[in-house]
Amino acid sequence: MAAATIVFDLDGTLVDTHPDLIGTLSWLLEEEGLDAIDLEAAKKLIGHGMRPMVENALKLKGRGFDKAEVDAVFARYIAVYETRLTRESRPFPGMLDALDRLADQGMTLAVCTNKVERLAKKLLDELDMSRRFAVIAGADTYGVRKPDPGHLLMTLRDAGGDPARAVMVGDSDTDIRAAQGAGVPVVAYSGGYTAIPLASLDPDVIIDHYDVLPETVGRLLSSPKV
């Protein structure tokens, strides 16, 4: 039987990045003369990529309807965010142990994120996590991004995986919809940044802690496909 491939989202799934994502966003809004955004409201903007996050944050403040303005503000955001990628961002509790256990079972690990590939790789490098993954695919890697299932399918292809022997792990609608579109079972992590109640998105399983991830993945892989 072919080895399984487990594909992870990054922000809100592998790593709790919101302190640095939103810390930079708060700085940016202040620089633009705008009020800071509420933490919980800002977390719900994460998942579709950094540019949509910045654009939607501006729109919440009555700005961000002009492309040239968004381009300029987003460029400032990226320049500052890159200097503080891992100032406070850390893997979620239990994640590193779960990755070790999955790898020990012979599974291939990969990342499929709506973060720009360069920043995703740099963030994971700084946390000494890149070496764990066969592929780190970002929003700009293939010309499509989640929820387009092609993003996940091409990540699997480059990792040498098979959708029939794969599981997606994510925290939001973009992850779940991409997996469902690709015909890949999906584990949803409840501690992430979803703006939509996870149960309403109908993932295969919802977990609250990564201690149970290896066993959960094993059950999904052994379940007969309908």
What features would you describe in this structure?
InterPro entries: HAD-like_hydrolase_sf, HAD-like_sf, HAD-SF_hydro_IA, HAD_2, HAD_sf, PGP-like_dom2, PGPase_prok. This is Phosphoglycolate phosphatase. It is an enzyme of class 3 (hydrolase). It comes from Phreatobacter cathodiphilus. With 226 residues, the protein is α/β, with parallel strands linked by helices. It has 2 domains: 5-16 and 89-222, Rossmann fold, CATH 3.40.50; 18-84, Orthogonal Bundle (DNA polymerase, domain 1). It is 44% helix and 12% strand. It has 10 helices and 8 strands. The strands form 2 sheets. It has a 6-stranded parallel sheet, with helices on both faces. The protein is globular.
Descriptive key words:
single chain; 226 residues; alpha/beta; Rossmann fold; DNA polymerase, domain 1; 2 domains; 6-stranded parallel β-sheet; two-stranded antiparallel sheet; 10 helices; 8 strands; carbohydrate metabolism; magnesium; EC 3.1.3.18
Poorly predicted runs of 5 or more residues: none
Structural class by sheet pairing and helices:
alpha/beta
CATH topology annotation of the largest domain: Rossmann fold
Helix content: 40-55%
**Total number of beta strands:** 8
Widest sheet: strand ordering: 5-4-1-6-7-8
When the domains are counted, the total is 2
- What is the tally of helical segments? 10
What spatial form do the alpha-carbon principal axes imply? globular
Strand content: 5-15%
